[in-house]
Specification:
Blueprint lengths: L2 E6 L1 H4 L2 H16 L3 E5 L12 E5 L7 H11 L3 E3 L2 H7 L2 H10 L7 E5 L5 H11 L3 E4 L9 E4 L2 H11 L5 E6 L5 E8 L2 E9 L8 E3 L5 E3 L2 E4 L8 H10 L5 E9 L2 E9 L15 H14 L2
The structure holds adenosine-5'-diphosphate (ADP) and magnesium ion (MG).
The site of magnesium ion has 3 residues, from β15.
Length: 296
């Protein structure tokens, strides 16, 4: 029997889809003979007592979830997500560097420094990348700091706003699609496949409206063996450049094959969505986290 800690924040447990997923995971763990506890920030000191830690909270090197990951690693507690994966995936510049070094196909991408936010640079980028271009703040998640720029003015305005969050930003060629492929990968193996639909009249899977509301589309689960040729290979190559933990790879399908939009650590796993047709994912997560410890 192993002891699993699930590290959560208040917002994790306030999402019913996420909580239901954690309930399913806990049920599977108990069925396999393990004990499961939810750990909050105040329980951080207990992490060394556990065999494994599963983090379900926003992982940024500046967040407490990162401290939890480091604490687990220091005490040889198996952890999802490991601190290295968090550091790489929470900085898109770092993440794209890994992908580029390993020849993973990505949209044509440029890194722009603060001093490069000029009219001349905008013209140069439009000439190289076409119109519109996509701008991203390096630590964006849930599509929050990813925007389009179609004019020089828009480029300067958005880039200046984003550069307040970091000393550099990402500019990218726009790749149109009706949905994002999402491939979940654990320990170099495909865990689930799904499609995140892009709502009509939008271009991101999730849009934050100015009145605080959000617009998203349905999630469609795909059996792993029904994935189109080339998708899984491309996603595995992407995570292979980063680590062996749990990742969610976003990809776009083009006439020239698949391209990787990003590799996420701490990928969303919601009941009824990512587990729709890949319901064994909870057991596989538990076996990854706890079986190896049991063999010690
Ligand atoms: N180069 C691109 N072309 C078209 N759409 C993009 C591009 N990059 C990102 N997007 C879309 O924007 C959304 C968020 O982008 P992503 O890079 O995954 O940032 P985040 O980490 O905030 O999720 C996704 O729906 C993605 O498909
Ligand atoms: Mg994304």
């Amino acid at each position: 029997m192993g002891q699993l800690g699930i590290y959560v924040e208040r917002y994790t447990i306030s999402s019913s889809e996420e909580m239901n997923a954690l309930m399913r995971l806990s049920q599977v763990a108990r069925k396999l003979g393990h004990r499961v506890d939810f750990l909050f920030r105040a329980d951080m000191y207990k992490i060394p007592e556990y065999d494994a830690l599963y983090i379900r909270a926003l992982t940024d090197p500046l967040n407490s979830a990162y401290v939890a990951a480091r604490t687990a690693e220091m005490h040889n507690v198996k952890v999802i997500d490991d601190p290295d994966s968090i550091r790489i995936c929470c900085d898109k510049v770092n993440m794209y560097e890994h992908l580029i070094t390993h020849d993973v196909p990505i949209p044509d991408t440029r890194v722009i420094g603060r001093e490069e936010i000029t009219v001349e640079k905008a013209k140069e980028l439009f000439a190289i990348l076409g119109k519109p271009i996509i701008l991203k703040a390096p630590n964006s998640s849930f599509s929050r700091y990813v925007e389009k720029a179609s004019t020089v003015d828009e480029f300067v305005k958005v880039a200046k706003r984003f550069v307040r969050r970091a000393d550099r930003i990402v500019a990218q060629r726009f790749v149109k699609s009706a949905f994002d492929w999402r491939v979940g990968i654990l320990n170099d193996e495909v865990l689930y496949v799904c499609q995140y639909t892009i709502p009509k009249k939008h271009w991101k899977i999730l849009t934050h409206l100015s009145d605080g509301r959000t617009v998203d589309g349905p999630v469609k689960g795909i059996p792993i063996d029904k994935a189109p040729e080339g998708l899984l290979e491309c996603a595995l190559k992407a995570t292979g450049s980063i680590g062996t933990g749990l990742y969610g790879v976003d990809l776009k399908q083009t006439d020239n094959g698949f391209i990787v939009i990003e590799v996420n650590d701490n990928p969303t796993i919601n009941a009824g969505e990512e587990d729709q047709v890949n319901s064994d994912l909870y057991e596989r997560l538990i076996r990854y986290l706890l079986d190896i410890n049991n063999e010690k």
